[in-house]
Amino acid sequence: MTQTSPTIRVDQPGGADAMHLVDLPVGDPGPGEIRIRHHACGVNFIDVYQRSGVYPLPMPLSLGMEGAGVVEAVGEGVTHLKAGDRAAYASQPPGSYCTLRVMPAKCVVKLPDAIAFDTGAAMMLKGLTAQYLLKKTLPQGGLQAGDFVLFHAAAGGVGLIACQWARALGLRLIGTAGSDEKCALAREHGAAFTINYRREDFAARVREITGGAGVKVVYDSIGKDTWDKSLDCLRPFGLMASFGNASGVVPPFAVGTLGAKGSLYVTRATLFTHIATREATQAMADDLFAMVTRGQVKIRIDQRYALADVARAHRDLEARKTTGCSVLLP
Ligand SMILES: NC(=O)c1ccc[n+]([C@@H]2O[C@H](COP(=O)([O-])OP(=O)(O)OC[C@H]3O[C@@H](n4cnc5c(N)ncnc54)[C@H](OP(=O)(O)O)[C@@H]3O)[C@@H](O)[C@H]2O)c1
User: Fold this and answer.
1) How far, in Å, CA of 110 to CA of 130, rounded?
2) Could you give the C-alpha distances from 36 to 39, 46, 72, 114, 238, in angstroms and in order?
């Protein structure tokens, strides 16, 4: 008998109301696939870009790129997972906002027993992102203990993980956030300095904090609103690591600006390049799991919603009302 699963779908790009709960059939996994029953699903800003059409995808679209649960069945050729395993993932294609799904096994990893399902669902996409940013998205010569980096939205899902990871690496992370309360939270989690960028000129403050030198890397997920000033925070040969567009997409820019501001480097990084293979995904996940099980990175779930309440989860995220991670409970 075919099973069905409550699933969040979008028929046409739009606002939070464009999401609907529908019941979809779920079959058996094919070659290279698994069927997983979710205990929790992560909410990420990329889900907003996909829902609203900032990242255009074929419609109708099942949303969600992060989840954790129990493997129910594995398809031919899947050897790293078996029925009954606890598992978690950050993965293409979207479709994690549901109870049950069939999906490619490649980016799914076993979840250590010490990590709860909701934590696993909250941390995979955001934690693997913090991992590749701080450990692989580096300026010439790398980063050493004591170096300054600037991290925008430091009290958010990726942000609070990055604050803790940067502290563990000995980096001096300057975090920006949209309120004094969020700034305090980022400091509690390891930011060496914080700037409330709703009321302070963050480029001027970064110059002050670094004694005029600037930072080696800016990790910028805000996009349109912060791009220009972020370039002004960098020291010569510094790296502008753009990895998101919460305020809107960065408009085209004159490449000569990078010369004028000190032979700067720019990358537009995405997790999905880093987790293109199973081996790379597992290695990054092992690093993340070690940080979490040792207690060096704590995963804060500050918002929990029922699956059917997904519109509220998106509205809260877009309205900058959230801190740390958000999960949906199917
Ligand atoms: N490229 C990748 O591989 C990758 C992977 C994961 C995430 N990301 C990006 O990283 C960012 C963080 O993701 P997340 O899921 O952890 O979200 P989040 O940081 O929890 O939420 C986004 C935060 O951005 C800030 N923000 C500033 N201007 C905003 C605006 N106009 N509208 C909405 N938010 C605004 C808000 O914090 P304040 O109020 O403190 O400003 C808000 O809380 C997102 O841009 C996401 O797309 C990229």
Assistant:
1) 20
2) 9, 22, 5, 19, 43
The residue contributing the CA closest to ligand 1 atom 9 is: 244
- Rounded CA-CA distance 255/266 in Å is 10
Sign of CA dihedral 208, 214, 220, 222: positive
Shortest CA distance to 234 belongs to which of 205, 254, 262, 200?
A: 262
Which atom of ligand 1 is found nearest the CA of 323?
Answer: 20
Residue identifier of the C-alpha nearest atom 21 of ligand 1 = 156
* Closest protein CA for atom 5 of ligand 1: 129
Q: How confident is the model at residue 46 (pLDDT cuts 50, 70, 90)?
A: very high
CB atoms within 10 A of CB 277: 11
Confidence of residue 329 (pLDDT cuts 50, 70, 90): very high
- pTM, whole model, 2 decimals? 0.98
